[in-house]
């Protein structure tokens, strides 16, 4: 998923667009490009790699003009190279376009256009769209864009310039995020308001099938029938420091250390003063519906899917309702069995993951209500869902999710108690015990940071390995999966998470003195069993890194390395135990000199299916 941004007004556009692209780089960093309208001509500058590479190339360019569009790419069609970089232009160069999304029927359209003599310069699906617009252009850019969009299928957030219309940008969206920033005598747009929020907090979220004509002073929105439609201006609040690294070398480390605050913000106002009730007013008008549900289907992607796996354990335990967990894309196409008594619970940090958005549509079409746990306010998933519970992690910029994950576990724990109370499957004492434990999490996570030095040493010892195994039991299993994912995401070391008992049925074959094995062995009714698994790894000379409860000193005699977390219940230990796994992956990636915040091939939210 790419990022697009643009500006038109009185100021020099290029610096504003470059600055906006830097904030959108979490969306993709295979190549970048800009198109600046000088009033007479459109200057295009593109570069493979990151925005910094583009800035170097721009030193040779004029870049003068008060109207510009920009793009940062995550390659889908056509490898990362200059000719596939955006902006793209039509054959005679009078139409220029940037695009986030996939034109699914580009193959057929390309053949038709080639038969009509069009010569394509790139391997992208996007170039088909700019050639189509060029085909329809007769001086009215919005009309040409609408005519072209009526021929394409797929997803798009686009911005288009025409050489002979210097003070106009036409943008359009379908199943990819796009919003407008309304200024005084100037206007912005971006895939994410973060691209222009420093300049205006007046934000219009474009809806699917809408086309907007921007000039410095006006915003006109039309539908694909060319009819004018009204729009709502939202006043967005964003603390600018949340989008700066501050004294941290990486956003990921900053976001790991923000977890106590993020969790406190997510807990605030949601536990009654007597500690026996969960307050989720956003669900008040759905209490009757929630009382009638007999199945919960959780769908999500990536790290959010791991949070869903943890939720399966705690929801079935406290609410006694059967839970299934599915990857959003698999759910979407597997003919799931659900009805109006099924609650579909989606989890997403960004609220823009295309697979999850599509799963919501599918679930609602099948009669289920959708509750979503989302971190980004007013995101597509938040807008499309029947009920939304926000995590308050604040903006998460590091591509590998950290604070969003732990705040998701907090909200899921609150929801499990809420549902358990509603279904009378959780009594006062049990509910109160869980809620008091949750309240202690921010301080306990702060204690885990005392292990940072120890974890750094372990990272030094293990960063040269090319494989790793993560083992856990019960709620420890999804946490093992998350630990393995963190290592894969940012250090490119192959790692697998496994239920510890399952190790004996296969993965144990991988274990020798070169296989570091991380084991989650916190106190609880499964401890003796996991100790057995630790001994099985030791018996095969596996190198053991054990996450253990602080009162467990004896484990030092068995493990090669021990990382202690505060003593807590199993479900709280699971939340605490992910923090050392985040730090371990982080320090290993730093030791390897990897691009921690922008790991190769990844992006913060995947807005294409
Ligand atoms: C991936 C991100 O693109 O999407 C992961 O790199 C994330 O960090 C996954 O977990 C799901 O995203 P979201 O925003 O739906 O939770």
From TrEMBL:
This is Glutamine--fructose-6-phosphate aminotransferase [isomerizing]. GO terms for biological process: carbohydrate metabolic process; fructose 6-phosphate metabolic process; protein N-linked glycosylation; UDP-N-acetylglucosamine metabolic process. HAMAP family: GlmS (MF_00164). Catalyzes the first step in hexosamine metabolism, converting fructose-6P into glucosamine-6P using glutamine as a nitrogen source. GO terms for cellular component: cytosol. The active site is at residues 2, 604. GO terms for molecular function: carbohydrate derivative binding; glutamine-fructose-6-phosphate transaminase (isomerizing) activity. It is an enzyme of class 2 (transferase). Its EC number is 2.6.1.16. NCBIfam families: glmS, PRK00331.1. Homodimer. Residues 286-425, 458-599 form the SIS domain. It comes from Candidatus Termititenax spirochaetophilus. It catalyses: D-fructose 6-phosphate + L-glutamine = D-glucosamine 6-phosphate + L-glutamate. Residues 2-217 form the Glutamine amidotransferase type-2 domain. Keywords: Aminotransferase, Cytoplasm, Glutamine amidotransferase, Repeat, Transferase. The lineage of its organism: Bacteria, Bacillati, Candidatus Margulisiibacteriota, Candidatus Termititenacia, Candidatus Termititenacales. It is found in: Cytoplasm.
């Amino acid at each position: 998923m790419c990022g697009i941004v643009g500006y038109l007004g009185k100021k020099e556009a290029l610096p504003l667009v470059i600055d906006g692209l830097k904030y959108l780089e979490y969306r993709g960093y295979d190549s970048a490009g800009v198109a600046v309208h000088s009033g007479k001509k459109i200057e295009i500058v593109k570069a493979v790699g990151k925005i910094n590479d583009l800035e170097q190339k721009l030193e040779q360019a004029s870049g003068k003009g008060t109207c510009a569009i920009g793009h940062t790419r995550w390659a889908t069609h056509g490898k990362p190279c200059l000719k596939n970089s955006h902006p793209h232009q039509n054959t005679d160069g009078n139409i220029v376009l940037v695009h986030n999304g996939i034109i699914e029927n580009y193959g057929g359209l390309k053949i038709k256009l080639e038969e009509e003599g069009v010569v394509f310069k790139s391997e992208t699906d996007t170039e088909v769209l700019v050639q189509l617009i060029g085909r329809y252009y007769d001086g009215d850019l919005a009309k040409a864009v609408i005519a072209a969009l009526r021929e394409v299928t797929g997803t798009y957030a686009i911005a288009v310039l025409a050489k002979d219309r210097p003070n106009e940008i036409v943008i359009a969206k379908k199943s990819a995020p796009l919003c407008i920033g309304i200024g005084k005598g100037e206007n912005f747009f971006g895939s994410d308001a973060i691209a222009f929020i420093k300049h205006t907090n007046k934000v219009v979220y474009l809806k699917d099938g809408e086309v907007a004509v921007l000039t410095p002073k006006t915003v006109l929105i039309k539908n694909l029938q060319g009819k004018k439609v009204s729009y709502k201006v939202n006043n967005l609040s964003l603390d600018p420091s949340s989008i700066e690294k501050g004294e941290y070398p990486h956003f990921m480390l900053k976001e790991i250390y923000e977890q106590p605050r993020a969790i406190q913000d997510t807990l605030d106002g949601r536990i009654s003063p007597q500690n026996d009730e969960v307050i989720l007013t956003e669900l008040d008008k759905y209490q009757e519906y929630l009382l009638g549900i007999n199945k919960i289907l959780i769908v999500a992607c990536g790290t959010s899917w791991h949070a869903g796996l943890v939720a399966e354990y705690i929801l079935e335990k406290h609410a006694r309702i059967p839970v299934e967990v599915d990857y959003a894309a698999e759910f979407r196409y597997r003919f799931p069995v659900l009805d109006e008594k099924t609650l579909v619970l989606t989890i997403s940090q960004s609220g823009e993951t295309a697979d999850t958005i599509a799963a919501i549509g599918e679930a609602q079409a099948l009669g289920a209500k959708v509750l979503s746990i989302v971190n980004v306010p007013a995101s597509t998933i938040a807008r499309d869902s029947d009920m939304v519970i926000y995590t308050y992690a604040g903006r998460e910029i590091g591509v590998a999710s950290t604070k969003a994950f732990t705040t998701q576990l907090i909200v899921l724990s609150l929801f499990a108690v809420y549902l358990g109370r509603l279904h009378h499957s959780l009594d006062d004492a049990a509910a109160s015990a869980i809620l008091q434990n949750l309240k202690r999490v921010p301080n306990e996570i702060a204690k885990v940071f005392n292990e940072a030095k120890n974890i750094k040493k372990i990272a030094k010892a293990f960063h040269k390995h090319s494989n790793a195994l993560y083992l856990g039991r019960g709620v420890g299993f999804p946490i093992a999966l998350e630990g393995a994912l963190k290592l894969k995401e940012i250090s490119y070391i192959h790692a697998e998470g496994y239920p510890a008992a399952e190790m004996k049925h296969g993965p144990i074959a991988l274990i020798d003195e070169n296989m570091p094995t991380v084991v989650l062995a916190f106190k609880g009714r499964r401890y003796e069993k996991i100790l057995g698994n630790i001994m099985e790894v030791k018996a095969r000379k596996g190198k053991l890194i054990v996450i253990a409860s602080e009162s467990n000193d004896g484990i030092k005699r068995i493990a090669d390395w021990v990382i202690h977390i505060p003593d807590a219940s199993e479900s709280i230990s699971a939340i605490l135990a992910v923090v050392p796994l985040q730090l371990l992956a982080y320090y290993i990636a730093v030791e390897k000199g990897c691009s921690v915040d922008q790991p190769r091939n990844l992006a913060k939210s995947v807005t294409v299916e």
